[in-house]
Amino acid sequence: MNQAQSAAKFGRYGGCFVPETLVQPVMEVASAYSRLKASPEFRRELEEMLKHFAGRPTPLYFAKNLSRDLGRRIYLKREDLVHGGAHKLNNTLGQALVAKHMGKTRLIAETGAGQHGVATAIVGANLGFETQVYMGEVDIERQKMNVYRMELMGAEVIPVRSGSRTLKDAINEAMRDWSSSFENTYYLFGTAAGPHPFPSMVRDFQSVIGAEARGQIQEAEGRLPDSIVACVGGGSNAMGIFAPFLKDDVRLIAVEAGGRGLGHDDKTADHGASLGCGQDGILHGSLTRILQDPHGQILESYSIAAGLDYPGVGPELAYLAERGRIKTATADDRAALRGFRTLSRREGIIPALESAHAVGYVLREPEALGDLAIINVSGRGDKDLATVMEYENL
Ligand SMILES: *Cc1c(COP(=O)(O)O)cnc(C)c1O
After folding, report:
1. What is this structure's pTM?
2. Which of 92, 146, 213, 329 has the fewest Cβ atoms within 10 Å of its own Cβ atom?
3. Boundary residue ending a domain (171, 202, 233)
C-alpha cells in the first residue's frame, strides 16, 4: 500500500490503494489523461469515433406504451443502439485513444460476462493494438459466444485459474500483468471503479450519455426530468447518465441486483447490492462499498445479469449514496425478468438483463419517478436470450 497515493477523491471513498509496483503505471495514466482531457484535438478525435464508429448520439425515445401503462411520461436513453450493443464502447474508445497517445501498443483488460472484453477487442482491432483479455475459467465456460467474438476480432483470451475463477480474479491477474508490462501496455479498466484516475476517467467518457440526454429531454419536453433510473454493476452507465445532472433537482435512482431475492441480510451475498448492503473496504485499488464477510473476505456476488455480478461498486456512487444525492434501490431476478418481458412486449425493445433491472424497478415503483422520467437502457438483450429461456424452463 502506498500511503502517498491513497488520498481519497470522493469524500472518504476512492483513492489509489495499489501495491508499489503499480504506482508508476497508474500515475502515468493519471497524468496523460489530465493532459489529454484538456486537449481540443483529443476531444475532436474521440467525438469523430463516437459519431462515425460507435453510432452516437443515441436516441432518447419516448416510450409511449409504457408511459400509458404507468400514467407518466417515460423516455428511454438508447445505449442498446451503440456499436457492440451496450454503453461499454464509450469507455473503451476513450481509453484506447488515451493509450494510443501514450504510445502504448498492447491493451489488456479483465472481463466477467465478456461484454467489456468484447468492447476492448473492438477498439483493439480498430485501432491496431495487440489485445489480451483476462477472464476467469468459470466465466469462459459460461460465456462462450463472447469468447468467440473476442477471438474473431483478434484478441487473445487468457484463462484465469486462481480464486473463484471469475471477474475479481481476472482483475487481479490483469493488474499483475500490468505491473511488469506497463512500458508498452495499457490496462483498460471496464467500469467506474478501480484506483484513481479510473473512476473519474471512466465517468467522464460515459458522461456523453447524460450530456446527450440532457439536451434531448430539454428539446422534447422543455424541461429536465423529475427522475433518472439506471442499473448499477460497477457504476459506469449510472455515473455516465447521472453526472451531468448532479447539480440539478433531478432524482437519481441507482438500481442494484437484488439477486435471488433473499433480502438484505443473507450471509452468502446472493445478490450484487454493494451500495445497499456492502461495507467500507478496499477492492481493486479503491476504498468503496464492497460485499464482504465479518473477516473482510470478499463475498461472491450473484445476479441473473452477469454484468451486475461484481462484489464492489465505484467510489463516486458510494459517496453520492452516503450524501443522499442518489437513491439506491434493488430489483431481484424476478423483477428484472418482468422488466425484460415488459419492455420487449410493450415497446418492441429487448433490453439487456442488466438494464432490465432498471425497468423492473420502474414497473414496481412507478410513483417514485414523478411525472417525467428517463430510464437508461444500457444495452440490448440479444446476448441474454439463452439465459432467459433456461430460466423459464426451471
Ligand atoms: C457491463 C454492463 C452493465 C454494468 O456495468 P456498469 O459499469 O455498472 O454500467 C450494465 N448494463 C450492460 C448492458 C452492461 O454490459
Report:
1. 0.95
2. 329
3. 202
How many angstroms is it from 23 CA to the middle of ligand 1?
27
Say how far apart CA 314 and CA 288 lie, in whole Å: 7
**Pair 320, 230 in one domain:** yes
CB of 228 closer than 8 Å to CB of 374: yes
pLDDT tens digits along 99-147:
999 999 999 999 998 999 999 999 999 999 999 999 999 999 988 999 9
The answer to whether residue 61 sits within a structural domain is yes
Residues counted in the chain: 394
* Contact by Cβ (8 Å): 76, 377: yes
Pair 252, 325: CB distance under 8 Å: yes
Q: Amino acid identity, residue 335?
A: A
In a domain, 164, yes or no: yes
**Is 110 designated active site?**
yes
378 is catalytic: yes
Catalytic residue (choose from 9, 88, 100, 383): 88
Is 227 tagged catalytic?
no
H or E stretch at 390: helix 385-392
- Distance from C-alpha of 65 to C-alpha of 342, rounded to nearest angstrom: 10
CATH number at residue 24: 3.40.50.1100
